[in-house]
User: Fold these one by one.
Assistant:
Number 1:
Amino acid sequence: MNSLTTKKLKKSLVSTEFFVLVLIVLLAVFIEMQSGLFFTNNNLVDLLRSMIVPSIFALCAYLGFISTGPDVSFPLIAALSSYIATQFVVITGFQGSIAIVFLVAIAVGLVLGSINGFIIAKYNFPSLIVTLGTSTIFSGILLGAFEASRMELPATMADFGRQSLLAVTNAKAGIGSSLPMTFLIFVGLYIIVYFVLNHTMAGRGVFAVGGDETSAERAGFNVKLIRFGVFTVSGAIAAIAGVCYTVESLYYLPTEFAGEEMIVIAAVILGGTRLMGGVGTLKGTILGTLLITIVTNSLILVGIPVYWQKFFIGAIIIIGTAISVIQSHNLFKSKKSKDSKGLQNSEVVINETAQKQ
């Protein structure tokens, strides 16, 4: 094993993703030992099903953090976009492809996301404050202007929601579980985002802006355009998540996403995305979401009451934030130390040159 491979191995073993993976394994083993139900086929399928929408939402939070800052408006964008898309089908009597329903929602999400992006990019306002404000406005439009309430889905959406990629049954318990078609959408979105962030100049710009805005500008990146684009795309992704959840549930409920932003942000931070921006991975985001999903879905298997889930999620938020802050602090100290050494070396060279002269 060469030194480069050894360094990569050591780096991976101390990474946040590795610690989260260890936590997932330990938690899974604990639940299995206590209940004997964790590794059953229907529980594993249920976990995958439960991960779909939070994982898509996590993309919104992830893109916000690595480029600009926290985005807390994506649940309301999802709720408003999916409502308008559902109403479009109801009012027009549309019976065509479900893709059109998604496109309607995406169009709405792009508009709502661009509002966030415009304000943040144009006026350089903190993303947290802007998205808090716009989420309140979107909520007012949804519940006040539209008077949205629970409604059953039209056939076009309900039929898609009933389709499944995989169906399993636990013969002993007599419980069946299915993996919906929306799982393909979730996988497709992650592939697209991964490709854009890692193999395009726009993706490099997203990380550059989040890491150091001044350096990004000097490198030729349009900071305002990138921030506008990130929040606009985030709105479209949130809209997709909203429709996915609606068709999976077979009904629409405007308050279904209330508080979802905190759980999703906890998952993203826990996965290693730093609060200061510029650093984060999609695999860490997936692992963080999986851990949160296990906490929210599987602790009941060992008899832990539902209200304790909030306790564990709150603890995870604090731990994840602490890890992020510590990593950012260590990175700053390391960079400062390197700059200091570089300055000292420069002074030595200057002094030696002066003595020779």
Note: Confidence is low (pLDDT under 50) at residues 346-357.
Number 2:
Amino acid sequence: MSKEIEYTLFVLIAIFIVLVIHLWLYRVVKKKLSLSLFQIAPRLTVSFYMIAAALLFSGIIYINYLEKEEHKEYEEDARNLARLLADGLSNMHHEQLNEQTDENDETYVHILQMMEQWQNDHSEILSMYTLKKNERGNYYFVVASEVDYKRKGKINDKREQHLPIGTVYRTYIPELEQAFQGKFAMEKYPTKDEWGESIGVFMPVFKQDGTVDAVLGIGYDAKIYKERLEKERQKGMWICSLVLLVWKAFYLLGIYMQVERKLFEKHKQALEVSENRFKRLAESIMEGIIVHAHGKVIEANKAACRLFGYVESELIHMPVQDLMILESLKKIEHNDQEELYEIQLRRKDGTIFPAEMVQREYDYDGRKVNVTAIRDITERKNNEEKMHYIATHDDLTGLPNKEALHRAITEKIQEAFDRQEEVAIMFLEISGMKTINDFYGYSVGDQVLLQIVEEWKKRSCKDVLLGRWSGNEFIAILSGSTKEKATAAANQFSEIADEPVIVEGRELYVTIKIGISLYPQDGMDPKTLIRKADIARYKLRQKPASQFLFFEEPMARVIQEKIGMERELRRALEKGEFELYYQPQIQLDT
């Protein structure tokens, strides 16, 4: 392969590799940023191609330089060897030989043998000969050794025999003329003939007086010469390729850094947009938003500042635990699920308020943070308490109603069971209310009830829970009771009820009937205890004065008999089983 073809292939392969890498890099960058390489790093890309072109051009110059240096080195080696051999010929009296010399001349034979020996000692030499110029100006061979052109190890061709002395040398070689002028010369390029390629060197052989006697011609094997030049060429190409790849690597690194910077800027811009959107959203909502990490507040919106009573600078870096009461903090620490909590929080002034919060974990500026949304539910809790109060208390007196009384009796029974105590259930009926309502109106009747209830609440012992059952009926629950304690409480209720009630300047009187049942003697559940206390109270309905009565089993039988009689009478009436035997008639006007 010629040098020019090698150069061309080298340049084309280098350009191909650069373009393939460039195309791959272009696709990667386009996929990530939708930008071209010139948009990512215009100056770097232009610089890369300019320097890459300069490297290729410089590489060719460098490769030529290496070839020339190798040629010079080869030439110097050939010069030294040729000088040594030429000096040897001078010492062997080569000047005595001419075209008239007989081939049997001792000097000729000796020189011929020595030249053949030199040729055998140096395998890179294809041929060796000496030339002289006759009076006619023609060059002729003086001594020309045998040549194994075919490299078979033997001389078997007529043309491989040594040339006879006086054979005319008809080839014109400028370097030969230069040698006859007393200067060493070497062919610039190898020459090719039927025996192959060779490159010739020519060294003048001087006489004793210093004039040129002859020229020693040496034909070197061009294959070895070319191999040495090609080796240097390839060395130069590898070095140039390495430099080009290093420059390409620097370019790739620069592009990578630019891409990462662009991606970082893009991510940063997106993050800033997201943060601004989040901040605008956080500022526009009523809920307080707190961002915290490692127990410290990082950011808070205006709603959170208003909620806790702090300015933003005070709230930032504040420990989160300072905003919560201990019980709420433990509740959150022991439950890492993302759910809605109802907790108690603390304001700057120390007041505690109920709040509803939800907490999520996010990645914020490369670190894990918790974003907590807080809603003040004080108003809702107050409304819930009001609704609960309305649902469980009497509108007029504010006492627990039937539903609340049932729950309270159940709780008291459970407590009494655990403590092995008794509970007294008192069924109170205020008599005389119908007369007051009919005569003075319901507003006066309500005032009477309110005054009596207020006195009961003021003067009752702490173990008594009073509730309104219906109309003028009330129930009192006495926990930790005995029959004696129940008797004392009943007397107190009666005494209060017997006192006159002053309403709108009028002195009004009522009486009270109290039926009492005891847990566990009279029953084990609220329904039974209330029913039996009501039976005992019913027993006292016909009594004019305030009285109380404990339940006894015969009372239940009497009630059952009365209920049974009423049921039978109703059925008999429906069936027409009554017969009229006597009907008195009275004249009212007489």
Note: Confidence is low (pLDDT under 50) at residues 150-160.
Number 3:
Amino acid sequence: FKILFDPDKPYVMASLRIDKYVEFTRTYNMHDQNLFRYAVINVTNEIFARSLPCEVVSMDNDMFIIMFNDRGQPYGVLQKTIYDLLEDTQDWVTVNLRLSLSGVFSYIGSGLQSINHSYQEIMNLSKYRLIFGLGTVVSPDSLLQQIHEPLKWSSIREKKLLDALSDGNPEEAVLYYKEIIGELKEYTYDTIMSTLLYMTYAVYNLLNMMESNSLNRFDVDFSTFTNRIHQAETLEQVDEGFEQMFTHVSSVIVQRRGNRSSVVAETVMKLIDANYADKGLCLESVASSINMSKVYVGKLFRDTYGYSVADYITEVRLNKTVELLKAGRLHLSDVLNEVGIENKTYFYKLFKTKMGVSFSDFKLKYLHNIVDEEPEKL
């Protein structure tokens, strides 16, 4: 068995990683996974043999390590050759194995003492699949324009994001999130991850505070969510996770807000039912009794029931008026006093508007019904 790689000569280390690896392990059993790995090793050796005979090793996970010697080519020529060989391998695997591979390669190393450095280099480069995406090839030169300075964090954007989330507006929260993420792509992997974790922590603090101060329960498992960020292969997968969380949180807030609206509207209705005889009963007095803005209570009540607080007070008073008049125990002036109506002229107008007939016609009809019923009683 002849080893084609000579560690004492200048070399390049590369790697290929199986994309969507979690899905791969769920789809295929261990035997089939090993068959796929064997096929990738064989085709990589075959394709690289055209220009740069190599040694390929499966790491028994999602990664394959490729070692090959530099043949003294100018670095620019060597770099293009490596790109072409890795892309040819990716294409073959995509067409024939229905798998996607992402590739990286190191700068030129020399001697056994440099192998660990080259390995660390490709391990670091492989993290940038998060930025460059699935099925790509990343070289050290791909990161030359990276910003190594700390990210200038915008507390204003953070506040806008959290405010949108607490208002139950997922679309606006996603908008501010994407503005923050859009700036990250030029930064190092560590800066990107620390920013994502900071945003997660900021949302965690917000939800904790909201749960402490309200009846909202969001049931967000932040340990699982953090693991999901670490396991994400692309920023799109991270985005999807945040967007799903924002949508879930907002739905809880909106649902609770709807429940709260129903409770408040029902409370207002019960207050009116119990206090309709109070001549000072109005929207302002009802809102004051529950320590809320009259504008807020009025809108909430109308949105819930389709009519205003004033309309409901009038309806309750008219119904009680008719009920008392039919009982026949009180004169009209006494009845109006009982139901909280002070102005008799206003009552006549209101009665006709709501009942469709004048109060006089109503009394005549009611008396006529009483006369008709008397013989039956005899």
Note: The first helix runs from residue 21 to 27.
